[in-house]
Amino acid sequence: MAYGPDILEERDPARRMQNLQKLIAERQPTEILVLTAISILSDDSEIRRVALERLDERNAEEGNASARVAVMIDSWRREGALMTWPQPMDARQSARAARIERAHRARMPLASAAPDQEMPPAQAQPAAVDSPRSAASAPAPRRAAVAVPAAKNPFQRIAGVLVAPAETFRDIAARPDILVPLLIIVIAFFIAAAVVVPRLDWTAGNEIQVEAIKKQDPSMPQEDIDQRLKIANAAQKVTSWLSPLFWIVGYVIVAGVLLLAFRILGGEGTFKQAFSITLYSWIPIAIFRIIRAIVVAARGTVDVMDLGTVVKSNPAFLLDFREQPIPFALLGALDVFSIWTLVLLIIGFAAMSKFSKGKSAAIVIAFWIVLVLIGAGLAAFGAAGMKKA
User: What would the mean pLDDT of 160-171 be, rounded to a whole number?
Assistant: First the structure.
């Protein structure tokens, strides 16, 4: 249940209070965050009073709820948004926030900041009175309080997910984008393919195919075998060139499955958010493809069977795929770049769903383990076919 919108946007006062009481009763992990937003954004004075009284109760229980509220308000002023509330504070809401901050600094109950004092103009005007209304009505401070920073552009976000992922994914979750990161990843993959595919040595793969063909039909003429190899090699090259497009389908599946899992477990998020987070999380894989292309170009040619371990970023290079396919696949999953992507997915989906990073990690890692096991099964199946040959 999205308690914030359900309380703030509900027109029926009784239902608003019912939703607020349900939030308080369930003690959601995001309760303090939601109550802070409600106490500032809601135009229902009774709702604001109950929200602030509950924050005082949480402060009595934990001893730090009041400080957390002040930190959230300060972050709201600097970032221009509070998590799932993208709108900045207007003048009236800024005045409420100022009263709550003053109550915190004075170590008073936050609930004492609940009422909006509708003072007559003559009482509200003197500059010597440090009233919330006068503080809110000063044009310059109000503009500073609600200034919204410009959204990061895709290139800033790409750099951000590498050096400051938590902050960057909060920005991505608030304002997801798809086209530019998708184009950047696809272009990087095509550039890598342009370098790698012409330098692949298909000899070892052809030998395995020849053995399989002769096992199936020992009497097949060599000309027919050569023709089949030619067709198979052409198909493999086309597949290698088109693999970046196939990956787009993969991104859609990953985003969709993870979004479904998070939503089933009570998280927030839309497909656009999930897809954008998935794309930015795949930046390390794009970096890996470029690094591998550089290594392949430096070596001149690479056996197609060794392409997966040409960059020693995982321990699978210690094994022979044909002899130990399942351990090879499992060790290959322990790749530095794959784990990097996994960590980014955890951080990104935590920002989208409003789950803790621990809960997000449990969901993402469970999905990753399923993919690894499927990959190990396919590797075992392929190796079994080779041995039969």
Answer: 93
